[in-house]
Specification:
Number of strands: 22
Distance between the termini: 64 Å
Strand order of the largest sheet: 7-14-13-9-10-11-12-8
Bound molecules: phosphoenolpyruvate, magnesium ion
Structural class: alpha/beta
Shape: elongated
Number of helices: 29
Low-confidence stretches: 1-5, 171-177, 239-248
Length: 754
């Protein structure tokens, strides 16, 4: 059946009408199957709905016995229908009864039908049902018929997803309000939030499924695709100019995919069959997602991810401004499958109440940005985007790590109760704001802020931080379309120093690569990005970019003190090379402007185990080091911080990690290197306690952690606790974390996590 046959378009229009009709679900579904059967010239058309237990229930049929409706159930391991659901792809079979998976159900009266075509009904990458057509005679369905039925299934997905199977027998209506669902996730940024879901990936509303004018729609699609290709070409050209690198890999793959004629053809075919340009892209996206769900091969998964990214880009282009996620001033909760740090930053001033991410690990940079923005965030929630619809109300409890979709009154009351509890706790921290973080026996610990945006500087004051212990300068690079200009960099650093009002600020030079991928320039795809060409390695190999940043820092300081540290230093020579570049910039600037910073302090981040054994050589060269636990622990335990399955597997509060950190601390004392720590672990009161017990007197963390950590320190008698802690480290029990927790309780130390 060719696509441009009027019958297909007519069917789309009729389906649209039926969808809009009022009335009982069952009679509407009967009309739908009758329409499909006649358009497809089939003897049978049936719809199966996937139930919560995974079984498939026949909910409408034309051609099979009416009594089977709401009675015939198949497991996913049963019959051809089960097979379609399991594989999440279409199946066309010439003689179904002879197929190994055929399962005969007498109540359906299926005997006379030989040819079978089944397609999955997909929503958000999830199989929510199966649509089938059958014919009496043996016959082969052609590709166009298969595509056609898939398109119909896409349209059906919107109605099928709202059906309440229990209501089918008593002629009930669609379930307009779907049930409350509660899911658990990992806390990325503590807090509570309530609002309407806004999906980060473009959504095509059912009202926009069909095109009024097919020719115009086809032009819109072609224009959109041309714009997509041009934007990719522009990015590649920019990359080449900025870096002088051969821009292959990621963008090249994108380009190849975007130029792939079969993708374009498929999208155009969708439009020819009556879909709008958006709906046609959405159809392709559903297929890619469904295949992604079942694909195991990492290469194939990557390609399918690329394809889905392209689908999303194209949808954004087609949707224009209107297609952008609309964050309402009032209350919105952002819901995303994957979110890069730069994408999240784009939402930074929109008044989001909470963020939910399907993927990502707690030490990923998107999670760090969420903390920097102070927005409650949960991540690691598989299936999230298929469970929430645009506009659903959501409660995000990023204290307990739960979220409630479409909450009922009881849940909402419980949420309000927690909000008031939280404000009581916040008030207690607020009361400590101007008091020192001093142990009961008189050791002062300096509590600093991890920052990366100038809006964080407000937080420094609000949280009562002693300064900024880590300013992640790469965030400015991540949000820019092109590399930030010298003057833009100077402006940002000046604003940060001005707002610090004389309190110390440790600027960390650009830490790009790994998961911090620049939109403006494109790093080559690597097998192991965390171990790859990143951070100081990348900076030292891109001296133009690096020196421009050092110059900006020196110029921004003017005659104020300047403190700089270099990330991911592995061998001392890397530190020396970077420091020499900095000192050269200081001299150059002094000659040109007659001004130089009143003091220049240079330090390193300790993020690789190798550097821990380079401290004797670092002595006398670096003034300080800051332990970056996020990277250090991923290398120490050989566990990728970005892979949720392993990123939480190993515990910093364990004898091996803490003994290692003790060696670092002892070496720093021996070689006269000032030390601090600034990874995400410092924000946990239990880990912070361990750091202090190991001799650290400066910790840098997110704003929200300063209150709880200060409270912990003010309850700690260090001289009494340390010997017991070190003894435990020498004679650890099997559950060391609990051993330390018990010890803390014995010493009356106030922990707010653990
Ligand atoms: C770290 O690795 O601990 C760190 C602070 O740096 P980032 O998280 O930015 O890699
Ligand atoms: Mg790091």
């Amino acid at each position: 059946m060719p696509y441009n046959l009027p019958a297909t378009r007519l069917l789309m229009n009729r389906l649209r009408q039926v969808m809009a009709e009022e009335g009982e679900t069952r009679s509407r579904l009967d009309k739908v199957v009758r329409l499909i059967a006649s358009t497809m010239v089939a003897d049978v058309c049936s719809i199966y709905l996937r139930l919560q237990d995974g079984a498939l229930l026949l909910i409408a049929t034309e051609g099979l016995k009416a009594d089977a409706v709401a009675a015939t159930r198949l497991t996913v391991n049963e019959g051809l229908v089960g097979l379609v659901a399991r594989r999440a792809e279409p199946m066309a079979i010439q003689d179904a009864p002879r197929h190994a998976s055929f399962s005969y159900r007498p109540e359906t009266g299926e005997d006379p039908f030989h040819a079978f075509l089944g397609v999955p009904i997909l929503r958000g990458g999830r199989v929510i049902g199966v649509l089938t057509v059958q014919n009496r005679t043996e016959r082969a369905y052609d590709d166009e018929e298969i595509d056609n039925l898939q398109t119909i299934a896409m349209v059906l997905a919107e109605i099928v997803d709202r059906i309440d199977p229990d209501a089918l027998n008593n002629g009930g209506n669609e379930k307009r309000e779907r049930n409350t669902a509660s899911l658990t996730g990992r806390v990325f940024c503590e807090g509570l939030g309530y609002g309407r879901a806004v999906l980060h990936d473009p959504v095509v509303p059912a009202a926009k499924f069909f095109a009024a004018d097919q020719v115009m729609e086809s032009h819109r699609l072609s224009d959109g695709m041309a714009e997509l290709k041009a934007s990719i070409d522009r990015m590649m050209a920019l990359d080449g100019a900025a870096l002088g690198e051969d821009p292959r890999d990621v963008m090249e793959t994108y380009r190849l995919l975007a130029h792939d004629p079969s993708w374009a053809e498929k999208l155009q075919e969708g439009v020819k069959s009556g879909l709008s340009a958006e709906a046609s892209v959405d159809r392709a996206r559903r297929e890619h997602r469904a295949r992604l769900q079942s694909a195991r091969d990492p290469y194939l998964r990557e390609r399918l991810h690329d394809l889905e990214d392209l689908d999303n880009r194209l949808l954004r282009i087609l949707g224009g401004e209107e297609g952008k996620p609309q964050i309402s001033e009032e209350r919105s909760v952002l819901v995303a499958r994957r979110l890069g740090p730069a994408e999240l930053l784009e939402y930074s001033n929109t008044g989001l109440r909470a963020i939910l991410m399907e993927e990502a690990a707690a030490s990923s940079h998107a999670a760090i940005v969420a903390r920097a923005l102070g927005i409650p965030a949960l991540g690691g929630i598989p299936g999230l985007t298929t469970r929430i619809d645009q506009g659903d109300w959501v409660i995000v409890d990023a204290e307990e790590g739960t979220l409630h979709i479409r909450p009922d009154d009881t849940l909402y009351d419980a949420y309000k109760g927690r909000v008031s509890l939280r404000s009581e706790r916040q008030a207690a921290y607020e009361a400590l704001k101007d008091l020192p973080a001093r142990t009961t026996d008189g050791t002062d610990v300096s509590l600093m802020l991890n920052a990366g945006l100038d809006l964080d500087m407000e937080m420094m004051k609000q949280a009562g931080a002693d300064g900024v212990g880590l300013f992640r300068t790469e965030f400015q690079f991540l949000v820019s379309e092109s590399l930030p200009k010298l003057n833009d960099q100077i402006d940002l650093y000046k604003r940060v120093l001005d707002k610090a009002e004389g309190k110390p600020v440790v600027f960390r030079t650009v830490d790009l690569g790994g998961d911090k991928v620049l939109p403006a320039l494109n790093l080559q795809r690597e097998e192991n990005p965390a171990l790859g060409w990143r951070s100081i390695r990348f900076a030292l190999d891109h001296k133009g970019l690096f020196r421009r940043q050092l110059r900006a820092l020196v110029r921004a300081a003017g005659d104020r003190p300047l403190t700089i540290m270099f990330p991911m230093v592995t061998v001392v020579s890397e530190f020396e090379e970077a420091r020499d570049l900095l000192l050269a910039e200081v001299e150059w600037s002094a000659q040109r402007t007659g001004r130089r910073p009143s003091q220049v302090e240079v330090g390193v981040m300790l993020e690789t185990p190798a550097l821990a054994y380079g401290l004797p050589e670092l002595a006398g060269k670096a003034e300080f080091l800051s332990v970056g636990t996020n990277d250090l622990m991923q290398f120490f335990f050989a566990a990728d911080r970005m892979t949720p399955h392993v990123s939480d597997r190993y515990d910093l509060v364990s004898p091996s990690a803490l003994r290692f950190l003790k060696e670092v601390s002892d070496s720093c004392k021996t070689y006269g290197i000032r030390m601090s720590a600034c990874g995400e672990a410092t924000g946990s009161t239990l880990s912070a306690l361990c750091f202090v017990a190991l001799g650290f007197t400066a910790l840098s963390m997110s704003a929200g952690s300063i209150g709880p950590v200060k409270q912990m320190i003010r309850s700690l008698n260090l001289q009494a606790f340390r010997p017991d802690f070190l003894a435990a480290l020498n004679a650890p029990e099997q559950d060391f974390r609990n051993q330390v927790l018990a010890l803390a309780a014995d010493h009356g130390i106030e922990l707010s996590d653990g």
